[in-house]
Amino acid sequence: MSDLKTAKQHNTPFPGESELPGHTVDLKSYIRTCVYVFIAVVCAVSLMIWASYLPQEHFNWPAKVGLILAVACCNAFVVAGFLMHLISERKMIYTVLAFTVFFAAAMMWLTLYAMQDFPAGTTH
Amino acid sequence: MDATIEQFPPYREHGEQHGHAGEHAHHDPGFGRGYVFSTDHKIIGIQYGFTALCFLLLGFFLMILMRWQIAHPGAPVPFIGPLLEKVLGPVMAGNGAISPDLYNSFGAMHGTIMIFLGVVPLAFAAFGNYVVPLMIGAPDMAFPRVNMASYQAYFLGGVVMLVSFFIPGGAAQAGWTSYSPLATTIPTHGQAFWIIGMVLLISSSLLGAVNFIATIIQLRAPGMTWMRLPFFVWAQFVTAFLLLLAFPPLEAAAIMQLMDNLAHTSFFLPTGLAIGGKLANISGGGSPLLWQHLFWFLGHPEVYVLILPAMGIVCEIIANNTRKPIWGYKSLVYSVLAIGFLSFIVWAHHMYLTGMGTKISAFFQTTTMAVSIPSVIILTCLFISLWGGSTRFNTPMLFALAFLPMFGIGGLTGLPLGFNASDVYLHDTYYVIAHFHYVVAPGTIFGLFAGIYYWFPKMTGRKMNEFWGRVHFWGSFVFMNLVFMPMFAQGMKGMLRRMADGGANYSAARVPGAIDTLPGSIMELHTWILWAAVALGIAQIPFILNLFWSIQHGEKVGDNPWRSTTLEWQTPTPPPHGNFAAPPHICRGPYEYSVPGHDTDFTPQNEPDVPMAAPKISPVPAVH
Amino acid sequence: MEIPYAVQPRPDTGVYNAKMGIWLFLASEVMLFGGLFSGYVLLRVGADQWPHGWLDVRLGTANTIILALSAITTLLAWAACKVREFGKFKFFHACTLLLALSFLCIKGYEYHDKWIHYEIKLADGRIADGHIESAIYLNPATKEPLEERSFRGNAFSTVAGGTTNTYELASVTIEGRYVNDEKDLYDLRAQKNIPRDEIKIPRAQIKSMENYGPWHNTYLALYFTLTGLHALHILGGSIVIGYLWGPGRRLWKTNPEQFTNRVEVSGLFWHFVDLVWIFLYPVLYLT
pTM of this prediction? Predict the structure, then answer.
């Protein structure tokens, strides 16, 4: 996929014309990737549903939530990595996203911690 | 391509160097396209600036009305009392006096207008839009139409905020912080208008932030490396990141509060909430603290949004008027990056009194103290930069110089607020008001005044009048201090914020003999502060008159009257569409003043390194 | 005046302007939904009890598959542009739009389902819970009954031919069940074979009546707000994709590279919307 982009940087094709020989092959490779991604998504969804319906007696909700969220994160990585071609992006985008993820996580975790950390006996 | 850009002439090697404002030799876009719906960053910058200055003036008037009420609780406002009653109704302004609800309204809107409609649009959007593309050698912002959309969203947000004054029940009353459950249980629609206005303003800032960051990353001219950027651009870059990442959680919270207001949800309403002695008919299960966390997650980076552009402006002006490079450019850059990063993890120092535990408040105290370090580094670098300079004391320099100690006072007085132990006493008192006003009013606003006087010649080709500039400076400087310095004393004596009667209820006069009441000396300060505020307002009149008068009658100057090194001064005046005839090539850093051996005491960033003996085949337009 | 790097990428960053811009915007959107999610986490952790199984997992799964498919057709539309096959681009983008429309239709159906689901607190202390089948109103003047398919409040008036007719609620028929405690309504996963009977409740027995809107409890508030904001993003994204598929395609003739970039940028936004749903779906439907 990234090879395709680099080629495009050097040659701006004329409208309506594709100058790449064997272009149908390249579109097919996109389709192949998409099929793999779709299968991955369906697997992830099935896994999450299965985890959700695990019997209540052996698995409590926090454990199930953790498992489901872990699968969701993997699913998100697949979508972000392949469909948004995050895997082939350059450092600049990664830096922006890394800071974002850090701040989002900090916001969530610190808020939760702040709500849980209070002197004993001050709430009911 | 889109029609608007096609109307602008392409890069030309020759032709009209000194274009006239808004006109071209070829396609004249007309008044509508040229001034109202322009996508040119300079026009948009001026639009932002003009609108923001109007809002600053409005916010100032609200403050004067509040100070009157504090000094003379319940007394009819002189001159405009009857007008208030006519416009706002007898319930809010009966007898021409300011009712407590109206006082709260003014308080909430003063804060909102000054911060979101005044200072941020002026400091970030106005100056940033006008100057940043010029400083980096770009022809415009990366997304000109998004730029126009962001101004329009700001304008709409301002309209919504203004309209809220005239709806039944008046404008928002729950403070600029709009804490739930108060914000959700006030039975009028002012809060809903406030939230909708905020959503529009937040969207405007987000679009602007995306534009600034993309522009600074992508459109730097050849040779303009990161470490050759003027510090002002770095400051705007970090500010844009703060807006980009910190505003959305507030938008999320605003959406939730709007749902609470209109759809009767209970995001922020706890179970068992009672209003007027009766259980409220809500589902409950919400958390008022959640609003506070999400609000202050923006609220704290917001204050750095307020100060960083002003620091950038002051840095530029100091370098220019001391005729020497800034001391510690690298330290400045790393400090501003550190401030940007740390400012995201200090927010709960606004919430020490919410019953937080020791571990979490220890964390926030630590990060709060940590974030003060880069601020001190920046201030120190600017102070040291003054040493050994050939200082010119023009009006911009006076404001820039005054910024330093004023921001110093503001910053230092923040330290007791950053520590939990001392903040327990000082929280929500006038000490806090004095602290943050010192940083924003004699701090940021002085920086912005400095910027206006400094860049006025680039926008208009004329200088503002120097004498009246000094009158404006001295009046503002003296009276700002007279307004805010007494508030430290009032706060330390325990006077709380947001009291419509100015603390009369807690005064020694009302309850003689009770302990720890507000003494008469503290209450008397109200009158002094009121007079100082009025004088401060009068001191702005020369500025307003000077600004408009100088557009037509100011002293005419060339393209680079301050003899500055940065790129915005190497363009024609005012810069034409596309700014530069050809993309400039940058050869050196931004503060090459008084370089030994050079024939002039400044070397522009794009001046080529030609040897003295070689014939002058200068590829850039001749600079006068 | 040409803005540099509007179409061709800048060498040291490797991106063109719009791609930089969209990633920055998506970063802000991460913080937006992050704020809402952190609200969700906080409110759920602090709640005494939390509903389970209130949403139809089959519909949610269908929506997830639909959205995943639409993300894929978006990518293929961009790929078709890259190889300059405009016909395939039109096909894939049309698929995306249709899938988006079906997502919104299913969401609308789910919202409607909650809208007509009522929790009726009865005078004898029990709770009737189910979907409104019909409501019977009585005109107190003429004693004429009027049957309505939906609940129109405790009373309403109509104006016909100059005369105002007021109707008052006489009885409500729901398809649901009786429970003795509100707690029994929360964990539907743990309950097997929930009865669905036709229950007619006269007005006199009704103490209070509230449908499963956002006001009902924090779970529904979060559900409607999160999915509502998400649906707004789907709508916005659909409008942009629709514009590129329709009137915006003019740019293909003059500058196909820039058009391809626009398709890519709108695709990135669409993938982000899919990403949000990947987290929304398990969090609301499965946990």
Answer: 0.91
